[in-house]
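Human: Here is a favour to ask of a fellow structure person. Comparing notes only helps if you start from a blank page. I am asking you to supply a protein in sequence and C-alpha coordinate form. Write it directly below this note and I will take it from there.

Assistant:
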Amino acid sequence: MHLTTALLSFVGLLTTAFAAYNPSSSSNIAVYWGQNSYGQSTGSFVQQRLSYYCANSQLTVIPLAFLITISNPTLNFANAGNNCTAISGSSLFYCSQLEADITTCQKTYGKTILLSIGGATYSEGGFSSSSAAVTAANNIWAIFGPTTSGSTVPRPFGTAVIDGFDFDFESTVSNMPSFANQLRTLMNSAGGKTYYLSAAPQCPYPDAADGPMLGGAVSFDFIWVQFYNNYCGLNSFTVGSSTQNNFNFATWDNWAKTTSLNKNVKVFLGIPANTGAAGSGYESGSTLASIIAYSKSFSSFGGVMMWDMSQLWANSGFLSAVASDLGAPAATTVATTLQTVTKTSTSAAATGTAVPQWGQCGGEGYTGSTVCAAPYTCVYGGVWWSSCQ
Protein backbone atom coordinates (compact mmCIF):
# COMPACT_ATOMS: atom_id res chain seq x y z
CA MET A 1 0.00 0.00 0.00
CA HIS A 2 1.34 3.44 -0.89
CA LEU A 3 1.89 5.87 1.99
CA THR A 4 -0.67 8.36 0.63
CA THR A 5 -3.29 5.63 0.39
CA ALA A 6 -2.53 4.47 3.92
CA LEU A 7 -2.87 7.99 5.29
CA LEU A 8 -6.17 8.50 3.53
CA SER A 9 -7.46 5.20 4.90
CA PHE A 10 -6.38 6.21 8.40
CA VAL A 11 -8.14 9.57 8.12
CA GLY A 12 -11.24 7.76 6.90
CA LEU A 13 -11.17 5.49 9.93
CA LEU A 14 -10.88 8.49 12.22
CA THR A 15 -13.86 10.17 10.55
CA THR A 16 -15.92 7.03 10.99
CA ALA A 17 -14.92 6.62 14.65
CA PHE A 18 -15.82 10.19 15.56
CA ALA A 19 -19.09 10.09 13.62
CA ALA A 20 -20.58 7.18 15.60
CA TYR A 21 -22.30 7.50 18.97
CA ASN A 22 -19.66 7.98 21.65
CA PRO A 23 -20.81 7.23 25.24
CA SER A 24 -17.88 9.19 26.66
CA SER A 25 -18.75 12.32 24.68
CA SER A 26 -21.14 15.13 25.58
CA SER A 27 -21.32 16.34 21.98
CA ASN A 28 -23.40 13.64 20.29
CA ILE A 29 -26.14 14.87 17.95
CA ALA A 30 -29.16 12.69 17.20
CA VAL A 31 -31.78 13.69 14.61
CA TYR A 32 -34.93 11.79 13.68
CA TRP A 33 -35.41 10.93 10.01
CA GLY A 34 -38.46 9.53 8.24
CA GLN A 35 -41.45 11.79 8.80
CA ASN A 36 -40.76 14.71 6.43
CA SER A 37 -42.42 16.96 9.02
CA TYR A 38 -41.45 20.17 7.21
CA GLY A 39 -44.14 19.06 4.80
CA GLN A 40 -42.61 19.75 1.41
CA SER A 41 -43.45 17.46 -1.50
CA THR A 42 -40.94 19.01 -3.88
CA GLY A 43 -37.99 21.37 -3.78
CA SER A 44 -34.81 21.57 -1.75
CA PHE A 45 -36.48 21.04 1.64
CA VAL A 46 -38.35 17.83 0.85
CA GLN A 47 -37.06 14.85 2.85
CA GLN A 48 -34.08 13.29 1.05
CA ARG A 49 -32.88 9.69 1.18
CA LEU A 50 -31.12 8.64 4.38
CA SER A 51 -27.58 8.52 2.96
CA TYR A 52 -27.84 12.19 1.95
CA TYR A 53 -27.93 13.20 5.62
CA CYS A 54 -25.47 10.58 6.82
CA ALA A 55 -22.76 12.32 4.81
CA ASN A 56 -22.92 15.23 7.29
CA SER A 57 -20.08 14.81 9.79
CA GLN A 58 -21.89 16.65 12.61
CA LEU A 59 -24.60 14.00 13.00
CA THR A 60 -23.99 11.01 15.24
CA VAL A 61 -27.22 9.04 15.69
CA ILE A 62 -30.19 8.81 13.33
CA PRO A 63 -33.39 7.15 14.59
CA LEU A 64 -35.64 6.02 11.73
CA ALA A 65 -39.22 7.11 12.45
CA PHE A 66 -41.40 5.10 12.79
CA LEU A 67 -42.43 1.51 13.28
CA ILE A 68 -46.03 2.51 13.98
CA THR A 69 -47.43 -0.92 14.94
CA ILE A 70 -45.66 -3.82 16.64
CA SER A 71 -47.99 -6.84 16.84
CA ASN A 72 -48.62 -6.64 13.09
CA PRO A 73 -45.49 -4.65 12.18
CA THR A 74 -46.03 -1.58 9.99
CA LEU A 75 -43.56 1.11 8.95
CA ASN A 76 -44.25 4.72 8.01
CA PHE A 77 -41.43 6.77 6.49
CA ALA A 78 -43.59 9.40 4.75
CA ASN A 79 -42.34 10.15 1.24
CA ALA A 80 -39.39 7.73 1.63
CA GLY A 81 -41.94 4.93 1.53
CA ASN A 82 -42.62 5.77 -2.10
CA ASN A 83 -39.36 4.03 -2.94
CA CYS A 84 -40.47 0.77 -1.30
CA THR A 85 -42.56 -2.20 -2.47
CA ALA A 86 -45.13 -4.17 -0.50
CA ILE A 87 -44.07 -7.54 0.94
CA SER A 88 -46.75 -10.13 0.23
CA GLY A 89 -48.36 -11.66 3.31
CA SER A 90 -47.41 -8.80 5.64
CA SER A 91 -48.11 -5.13 6.30
CA LEU A 92 -44.48 -4.28 5.66
CA PHE A 93 -42.66 -3.08 2.58
CA TYR A 94 -39.18 -3.79 1.26
CA CYS A 95 -36.95 -0.76 0.72
CA SER A 96 -33.91 -1.48 -1.43
CA GLN A 97 -32.83 2.15 -1.08
CA LEU A 98 -32.89 1.90 2.72
CA GLU A 99 -31.06 -1.43 2.64
CA ALA A 100 -28.24 0.27 0.76
CA ASP A 101 -28.37 3.51 2.76
CA ILE A 102 -28.32 1.93 6.22
CA THR A 103 -25.20 0.01 5.27
CA THR A 104 -23.60 3.11 3.75
CA CYS A 105 -24.44 5.22 6.80
CA GLN A 106 -22.88 2.65 9.14
CA LYS A 107 -19.83 1.53 7.18
CA THR A 108 -18.92 4.64 5.20
CA TYR A 109 -20.03 7.41 7.55
CA GLY A 110 -19.96 5.61 10.90
CA LYS A 111 -23.48 6.62 11.92
CA THR A 112 -25.51 4.80 14.57
CA ILE A 113 -28.86 3.91 13.00
CA LEU A 114 -31.80 3.06 15.27
CA LEU A 115 -35.38 2.07 14.50
CA SER A 116 -37.82 4.20 16.49
CA ILE A 117 -40.95 2.39 17.65
CA GLY A 118 -44.16 4.29 18.32
CA GLY A 119 -44.78 7.87 17.29
CA ALA A 120 -47.90 9.99 17.71
CA THR A 121 -50.10 7.56 15.74
CA TYR A 122 -49.18 4.44 17.73
CA SER A 123 -52.41 3.16 19.28
CA GLU A 124 -51.93 -0.53 20.18
CA GLY A 125 -51.40 0.32 23.86
CA GLY A 126 -48.63 -2.21 24.30
CA PHE A 127 -49.35 -5.88 24.98
CA SER A 128 -51.99 -7.92 26.76
CA SER A 129 -49.40 -9.92 28.70
CA SER A 130 -45.69 -10.24 29.35
CA SER A 131 -45.51 -13.40 27.23
CA ALA A 132 -47.15 -11.57 24.30
CA ALA A 133 -44.55 -8.82 24.64
CA VAL A 134 -41.69 -11.34 24.55
CA THR A 135 -43.16 -13.02 21.45
CA ALA A 136 -43.46 -9.65 19.72
CA ALA A 137 -39.85 -8.76 20.60
CA ASN A 138 -38.63 -12.03 19.10
CA ASN A 139 -40.51 -11.24 15.90
CA ILE A 140 -39.24 -7.66 15.66
CA TRP A 141 -35.67 -8.85 16.19
CA ALA A 142 -36.07 -11.48 13.46
CA ILE A 143 -37.31 -8.77 11.07
CA PHE A 144 -34.75 -6.04 11.82
CA GLY A 145 -31.86 -7.81 13.55
CA PRO A 146 -29.20 -10.04 11.96
CA THR A 147 -30.39 -12.38 9.24
CA THR A 148 -30.97 -16.02 10.17
CA SER A 149 -30.44 -18.87 7.73
CA GLY A 150 -33.73 -20.39 6.64
CA SER A 151 -35.88 -17.60 8.12
CA THR A 152 -38.97 -16.62 6.13
CA VAL A 153 -39.85 -13.42 8.02
CA PRO A 154 -40.22 -10.24 5.91
CA ARG A 155 -37.08 -8.07 5.85
CA PRO A 156 -37.89 -4.42 5.02
CA PHE A 157 -34.19 -3.53 5.15
CA GLY A 158 -32.98 -6.73 3.50
CA THR A 159 -29.57 -7.75 4.80
CA ALA A 160 -28.96 -4.40 6.52
CA VAL A 161 -29.05 -4.57 10.33
CA ILE A 162 -29.92 -1.59 12.52
CA ASP A 163 -27.89 -0.64 15.60
CA GLY A 164 -30.75 -0.84 18.07
CA PHE A 165 -34.19 0.46 18.97
CA ASP A 166 -35.71 3.69 20.24
CA PHE A 167 -39.04 3.94 22.09
CA ASP A 168 -41.16 7.02 21.39
CA PHE A 169 -44.55 6.45 22.99
CA GLU A 170 -46.93 9.35 23.50
CA SER A 171 -49.52 7.49 25.61
CA THR A 172 -49.58 4.76 28.26
CA VAL A 173 -48.45 1.31 27.10
CA SER A 174 -48.75 -2.04 28.90
CA ASN A 175 -46.09 -4.71 29.44
CA MET A 176 -43.49 -2.69 27.58
CA PRO A 177 -40.63 -3.53 30.01
CA SER A 178 -40.95 -7.19 28.99
CA PHE A 179 -40.75 -6.20 25.32
CA ALA A 180 -37.72 -3.95 25.86
CA ASN A 181 -35.88 -6.44 28.08
CA GLN A 182 -36.34 -9.23 25.56
CA LEU A 183 -34.90 -7.01 22.84
CA ARG A 184 -31.98 -6.24 25.16
CA THR A 185 -31.42 -9.96 25.77
CA LEU A 186 -31.46 -10.70 22.05
CA MET A 187 -29.09 -7.84 21.28
CA ASN A 188 -26.66 -8.85 24.02
CA SER A 189 -26.53 -12.41 22.74
CA ALA A 190 -26.12 -11.45 19.08
CA GLY A 191 -22.46 -10.47 19.25
CA GLY A 192 -20.56 -8.89 16.39
CA LYS A 193 -21.25 -5.28 17.33
CA THR A 194 -22.73 -3.04 20.01
CA TYR A 195 -26.49 -2.55 20.01
CA TYR A 196 -28.34 0.26 21.81
CA LEU A 197 -31.69 0.95 23.46
CA SER A 198 -33.01 4.50 23.76
CA ALA A 199 -36.25 6.22 24.73
CA ALA A 200 -37.77 9.64 24.14
CA PRO A 201 -39.75 10.59 27.27
CA GLN A 202 -41.41 13.96 27.65
CA CYS A 203 -39.83 16.20 30.27
CA PRO A 204 -42.53 16.01 33.03
CA TYR A 205 -41.14 13.47 35.48
CA PRO A 206 -41.95 10.63 35.67
CA ASP A 207 -42.94 10.21 32.04
CA ALA A 208 -46.52 8.97 31.73
CA ALA A 209 -45.83 6.67 28.77
CA ASP A 210 -42.32 5.37 29.40
CA GLY A 211 -42.50 5.49 33.21
CA PRO A 212 -42.58 1.71 33.81
CA MET A 213 -39.52 1.19 31.60
CA LEU A 214 -37.63 4.15 33.08
CA GLY A 215 -38.45 3.19 36.66
CA GLY A 216 -35.48 0.85 36.92
CA ALA A 217 -36.96 -2.00 34.88
CA VAL A 218 -35.00 -1.56 31.62
CA SER A 219 -31.34 -0.77 31.00
CA PHE A 220 -31.17 2.11 28.52
CA ASP A 221 -27.95 3.31 26.94
CA PHE A 222 -29.28 6.82 26.42
CA ILE A 223 -32.55 8.72 26.49
CA TRP A 224 -33.45 11.95 24.75
CA VAL A 225 -35.90 13.92 26.82
CA GLN A 226 -38.39 16.04 24.86
CA PHE A 227 -37.90 19.50 26.35
CA TYR A 228 -40.69 21.04 24.28
CA ASN A 229 -44.50 21.23 24.33
CA ASN A 230 -44.34 21.09 28.12
CA TYR A 231 -44.06 23.48 31.07
CA CYS A 232 -40.59 22.03 31.79
CA GLY A 233 -39.28 22.72 28.29
CA LEU A 234 -36.70 25.08 26.84
CA ASN A 235 -39.04 28.07 27.01
CA SER A 236 -39.12 27.84 30.83
CA PHE A 237 -35.33 28.11 31.16
CA THR A 238 -34.16 31.17 33.10
CA VAL A 239 -30.96 32.47 31.54
CA GLY A 240 -28.28 33.34 34.08
CA SER A 241 -29.95 31.58 37.02
CA SER A 242 -28.13 28.91 39.01
CA THR A 243 -31.46 27.27 39.83
CA GLN A 244 -34.39 26.45 37.58
CA ASN A 245 -38.02 26.29 38.69
CA ASN A 246 -39.58 24.40 35.79
CA PHE A 247 -36.82 23.49 33.32
CA ASN A 248 -35.87 20.15 34.83
CA PHE A 249 -32.73 18.69 33.29
CA ALA A 250 -31.51 18.37 36.89
CA THR A 251 -34.40 16.03 37.63
CA TRP A 252 -33.45 13.78 34.71
CA ASP A 253 -29.80 13.84 35.75
CA ASN A 254 -30.92 12.73 39.19
CA TRP A 255 -32.96 9.94 37.55
CA ALA A 256 -29.85 8.79 35.69
CA LYS A 257 -27.82 8.56 38.89
CA THR A 258 -30.44 7.13 41.26
CA THR A 259 -33.31 5.39 39.45
CA SER A 260 -31.99 4.25 36.09
CA LEU A 261 -31.05 0.57 35.92
CA ASN A 262 -27.96 1.66 33.98
CA LYS A 263 -26.16 4.26 36.09
CA ASN A 264 -24.00 5.17 33.08
CA VAL A 265 -27.01 6.13 30.96
CA LYS A 266 -26.68 9.36 28.99
CA VAL A 267 -29.40 12.03 28.90
CA PHE A 268 -29.82 14.08 25.71
CA LEU A 269 -31.42 17.51 25.52
CA GLY A 270 -34.33 17.05 23.10
CA ILE A 271 -35.12 20.21 21.11
CA PRO A 272 -37.16 21.29 18.07
CA ALA A 273 -35.01 21.82 14.98
CA ASN A 274 -37.13 24.69 13.65
CA THR A 275 -39.78 27.18 14.73
CA GLY A 276 -42.68 24.96 13.74
CA ALA A 277 -41.01 21.60 14.24
CA ALA A 278 -42.71 20.39 17.40
CA GLY A 279 -45.31 22.88 18.58
CA SER A 280 -43.91 25.12 21.31
CA GLY A 281 -40.43 25.35 22.77
CA TYR A 282 -38.10 26.31 19.93
CA GLU A 283 -35.08 28.31 21.07
CA SER A 284 -31.96 29.45 19.25
CA GLY A 285 -29.04 31.87 19.51
CA SER A 286 -27.64 32.85 22.89
CA THR A 287 -30.61 31.41 24.77
CA LEU A 288 -30.10 27.93 23.36
CA ALA A 289 -26.35 28.26 23.92
CA SER A 290 -27.05 29.00 27.60
CA ILE A 291 -29.41 26.02 27.89
CA ILE A 292 -26.86 23.68 26.35
CA ALA A 293 -24.06 25.02 28.57
CA TYR A 294 -26.24 24.55 31.65
CA SER A 295 -27.28 21.01 30.65
CA LYS A 296 -23.71 20.10 29.75
CA SER A 297 -22.67 20.79 33.33
CA PHE A 298 -24.43 17.59 34.42
CA SER A 299 -22.30 14.47 34.16
CA SER A 300 -25.11 12.45 32.54
CA PHE A 301 -25.37 14.86 29.59
CA GLY A 302 -24.75 13.07 26.30
CA GLY A 303 -25.64 15.63 23.64
CA VAL A 304 -28.62 17.02 21.77
CA MET A 305 -31.54 15.32 20.00
CA MET A 306 -33.54 17.20 17.36
CA TRP A 307 -36.92 16.74 15.70
CA ASP A 308 -36.63 16.28 12.80
CA MET A 309 -34.27 16.06 9.81
CA SER A 310 -36.46 17.88 7.27
CA GLN A 311 -37.06 20.73 9.71
CA LEU A 312 -33.36 20.94 10.48
CA TRP A 313 -32.29 21.18 6.84
CA ALA A 314 -34.85 23.95 6.29
CA ASN A 315 -33.33 25.93 9.18
CA SER A 316 -30.06 27.12 7.68
CA GLY A 317 -27.13 27.29 10.10
CA PHE A 318 -28.97 25.72 13.05
CA LEU A 319 -27.08 22.41 13.02
CA SER A 320 -23.71 24.15 12.94
CA ALA A 321 -24.80 26.46 15.75
CA VAL A 322 -25.82 23.51 17.94
CA ALA A 323 -22.54 21.72 17.18
CA SER A 324 -20.66 24.88 18.14
CA ASP A 325 -22.65 25.23 21.38
CA LEU A 326 -21.85 21.63 22.26
CA GLY A 327 -18.17 22.38 21.82
CA ALA A 328 -18.30 25.34 24.22
CA PRO A 329 -17.48 25.02 27.95
CA ALA A 330 -20.19 23.84 30.34
CA ALA A 331 -21.76 26.19 32.88
CA THR A 332 -20.71 25.84 36.52
CA THR A 333 -24.12 25.82 38.24
CA VAL A 334 -24.67 22.09 38.53
CA ALA A 335 -23.84 21.73 42.22
CA THR A 336 -26.32 24.39 43.31
CA THR A 337 -29.03 23.08 41.03
CA LEU A 338 -28.58 19.44 42.04
CA GLN A 339 -28.78 20.40 45.72
CA THR A 340 -32.02 22.24 45.00
CA VAL A 341 -33.55 19.21 43.30
CA THR A 342 -32.56 16.91 46.15
CA LYS A 343 -33.82 19.28 48.84
CA THR A 344 -37.11 19.87 47.02
CA SER A 345 -37.80 16.15 46.72
CA THR A 346 -36.81 15.47 50.32
CA SER A 347 -38.77 18.36 51.85
CA ALA A 348 -41.88 17.54 49.85
CA ALA A 349 -41.90 14.02 51.21
CA ALA A 350 -40.99 15.05 54.77
CA THR A 351 -43.19 18.10 55.29
CA GLY A 352 -46.34 16.87 53.59
CA THR A 353 -46.21 19.37 50.74
CA ALA A 354 -46.58 16.69 48.08
CA VAL A 355 -49.45 17.50 45.70
CA PRO A 356 -52.60 15.38 46.22
CA GLN A 357 -54.52 13.59 43.46
CA TRP A 358 -55.81 15.99 40.75
CA GLY A 359 -53.80 18.87 42.23
CA GLN A 360 -51.65 21.03 39.97
CA CYS A 361 -48.03 19.93 39.72
CA GLY A 362 -46.85 21.92 36.69
CA GLY A 363 -47.64 24.36 33.93
CA GLU A 364 -46.37 27.57 32.40
CA GLY A 365 -45.61 29.99 35.25
CA TYR A 366 -46.37 27.42 37.97
CA THR A 367 -43.96 27.66 40.93
CA GLY A 368 -45.46 25.19 43.40
CA SER A 369 -44.44 21.65 44.25
CA THR A 370 -43.95 19.26 41.33
CA VAL A 371 -43.85 16.17 43.57
CA CYS A 372 -47.08 14.16 43.71
CA ALA A 373 -48.28 12.24 46.74
CA ALA A 374 -47.85 8.47 46.36
CA PRO A 375 -48.92 6.66 44.27
CA TYR A 376 -49.77 9.51 41.86
CA THR A 377 -47.55 10.97 39.14
CA CYS A 378 -47.50 14.35 37.42
CA VAL A 379 -49.30 14.04 34.08
CA TYR A 380 -49.02 16.67 31.37
CA GLY A 381 -52.40 18.24 30.55
CA GLY A 382 -51.35 21.20 28.41
CA VAL A 383 -48.94 24.13 28.40
CA TRP A 384 -50.70 25.72 31.38
CA TRP A 385 -51.68 22.71 33.45
CA SER A 386 -50.35 19.35 34.67
CA SER A 387 -51.96 17.42 37.51
CA CYS A 388 -51.29 14.49 39.83
CA GLN A 389 -53.07 11.38 38.59
Remarks:
- The chain has one domain: 19-334.
- DSSP finds eleven helices and 14 strands in the chain.
- The radius of gyration is 21 Å.
